[in-house]
Amino acid sequence: MNRFSSAISGNAAVIARILANDHVADIVEALNNEPRKLAADLLAQAPFERTVEIFDQPELDDASELISALPRNRAGKLLAAMSADRAADVLRDLDEAARLELLHAMPPALRHSLLSILGYEEGSAGSIMTTEYVSVPPDWTVARTLDYIRQVERTRETVYAIYVVDPDTQHLLRAFGLRKLITSNPQALISTIAADTAPVSVPPLMDVEQVAHLIRKYDLLAVPVVEDDKILGIVTVDDVLDTMIEENTEDAHRFGGMEALDEPYMKMGFFSMIGKRGGWLSALFLSEMLTASVMQHYEVELEKAIVLTLFIPLIMSSGGNSGSQATSLVIRAMALRELSLADWWRVALRELPSGVVLGVMLGLIGMGRIVLWQYLGLYDYGPYWHLIAATVGVALVGIVTFGSLSGSMLPFALKRIGFDPASASAPFVATLVDVTGLAIYFTVAALILSGTIL
Amino acid sequence: MNRFSSAISGNAAVIARILANDHVADIVEALNNEPRKLAADLLAQAPFERTVEIFDQPELDDASELISALPRNRAGKLLAAMSADRAADVLRDLDEAARLELLHAMPPALRHSLLSILGYEEGSAGSIMTTEYVSVPPDWTVARTLDYIRQVERTRETVYAIYVVDPDTQHLLRAFGLRKLITSNPQALISTIAADTAPVSVPPLMDVEQVAHLIRKYDLLAVPVVEDDKILGIVTVDDVLDTMIEENTEDAHRFGGMEALDEPYMKMGFFSMIGKRGGWLSALFLSEMLTASVMQHYEVELEKAIVLTLFIPLIMSSGGNSGSQATSLVIRAMALRELSLADWWRVALRELPSGVVLGVMLGLIGMGRIVLWQYLGLYDYGPYWHLIAATVGVALVGIVTFGSLSGSMLPFALKRIGFDPASASAPFVATLVDVTGLAIYFTVAALILSGTIL
């Protein structure tokens, strides 16, 4: 739906009406569908207040590109009027020269608070916090605080969470909700209405996922970011929602066996996408080449018993599937903080019997298939068909157990050596299990079939 | 950390102190770690108000089980005092007899609103809405509305979103934030301060994921659930956060190739877990059996050219990996509403060239490996080694292209026939691609090698 392009063939009044009346989220959606040049032109002409609102939406695509297309003067004013966390987001994606130029045209106080946000690495609480929160000293009354909120309301991202700060030390003392404020006696002192305990807070370097976990656990609308007892900013629930959706997309892409895309699928350039996929695909391919080496190693057995090759795809995929299940379970439980690094042995003790039971299930089905085909005359597995059935059954128990166990331990191992456990992907596990799976299969075959067909 | 169990060996005063002073979220976490019997006993003795708060946390495990362990009288009072959406959640998990008994002991108005929530299927906006919201007629003043909020504040889940409802028709007219209320002139009429347009609302049957999408898009703290222009309840951002985390867990488990677990990994019973995993594992195993049939079909070729078997695992896994990438991309883009059913051909037109390019990449690596091993004398692929290299290369292009294309189309196909596109899992795609992959490999081999080793 290219609403602006169609309006342009009409007239400027239509565009003005859309910009004036539509919900800002809908304008952003419409802008995202327009060519970049047209979007930049529209933003250069739109009323200033409206443009601020539009740039304040994290859903606006290419915000940095669009803001650099504007005259430097207007760009600087927009950044100063935007919420601090969004302005930092936009600045972060600019090239360094443009970023510094814009920063140095700003009032010193604003520059300082933007630089403090930009100083934290992406994905940390500090990098998504906003410095525009409401703080009051403990000796104010409820009435005075309400008056103050009325004055500053327009420049604060949220007024629903209010922080009590010691005016001398700047230490964060307490936190309470606007709800509490409007139901309290107007003459009461702030120090008497806030809860008795220090508020839940997070350090600036805490991972956003962990911040989301705390916000959810304590049902907060915002959480203060605190260092040396001083409040640096707050992270609001809507920023967490946005970040969580991004993190989930990253995890889903990585579990699918690729680098996470940082743009929508249909908007991503063809060759950047090939890059994100091709790297992992080639790495997995190179590792999987070990299967060819394993097969070469067992070449003599293969030539003697060609019937063994028939079940290779079936057996290998079962190991990969059980591994993929175990990995997805453990990655997710880790993301939800149900499991920590220290729980690895508990998980191992659970996956070992699970793997055996699931392996026996598949083993029985596999043997059943061989017996059935043999009896029905659909295929002749030769005089030792019952030994072949046994080989397939026993190998499946071994491989599914190995798959479950290694699939569940892989995220722990990655975490232990400092990687994100979510880097463990279904294809990664499958590759890990394939090589070992072949070795297990041929070893079982050698044990059961030696002296007959091997 | 079994805080209560350890406290019990101490004395009752310690438990009373924990219950009185700790944050309710921490108490819930501690209770979740205790044996069920002990948790039920503690909840039977805890102060009533505190118990209500505890049951109001969606993080409390086995809430239904715990409430049925309480005397019926106390259970009924607790449910009446809890927020309506949580009470409905707890009732939903009870067996029918207990549910009806508790419902009929309640005041009729409450019973009616709980039944209206229980009437919507799980995962819909109606099923997670709360009926405890603030609504006022348009002819009230700001001051009167604030007074009203002060009175009802304790019985409303949120007072940050306020709804303007026509007192005669019960139609939802407008919505505004508490923020707006406290910054407006106390004598102004509500009808003059609320925005000019009807609020964003959702129908009761809308999927929760879609509700989350709207809340995020319009940066809302709550969204009203509306039917026939009448407001039935509201869905708050924290309920959406909880539901989104659940949905993400479900999607992650399903993408891993299993039924979603509805309990934390370490708490799930061993055999229920085997059930959730074994079903899909067996279904995939049965489908994967087709690979054995394909292999049997090409038995003659296999016997003539045993060298072909060496590359089967390598080639098959490449198809599965590229398919898994494409599926995770499309599932995620669908969840984020970047792609709809009508976009299938756009995706196909993108995946076809992607698959070819990625296939050529892997094909070149694969051929390189054969040439290298042959030259270095690591393995002798026979006099026709260059034709074998060509077979592997060409087959990889075909299989990776087929993998990318079918992996990306699978979620569309599932959606088209009414399933959740997220039911497409990495193992599902791998299985789909394995059978076709083998057929492609042997067909390419027949074309290239016929007259030489075949």
Automatic annotation (TrEMBL), chains A, B:
Q: Which family does it belong to?
A: Belongs to the SLC41A transporter family.
Tell me the ranges covered by the CBS domain, including all copies: 195-250
Q: Which domain of life is it from?
A: Bacteria
According to Swiss-Prot or TrEMBL, what is its membrane topology? Multi-pass membrane protein
User: Which SMART domains does the UniProt entry name for this protein?
Assistant: CBS, MgtE_N
Complexes and interactors: Homodimer.
Instruction: Describe the task this protein carries out.
Output: Acts as a magnesium transporter.
Which gene underlies this protein? mgtE
The record's listing under NCBIfam families reads: mgtE
Thylakoid as UniProt keyword: no
Per the annotation, which location comes first and is thus the protein's main one? membrane
Q: Which segments cross the bilayer?
A: 352-372, 384-405, 426-449
Annotated InterPro entries: CBS_dom, CBS_dom_sf, Mg_transptr_MgtE_intracell_dom, MgtE_N_sf, MgtE_transporter, SLC41_membr_dom, SLC41_membr_dom_sf
Q: What is this protein called?
A: Magnesium transporter MgtE
- Localization terms from the record: Cell membrane; Membrane
Q: Which UniProt keywords apply?
A: CBS domain, Cell membrane, Magnesium, Membrane, Metal-binding, Transmembrane, Transmembrane helix, Transport
Name one matching Pfam family.
MgtE_N
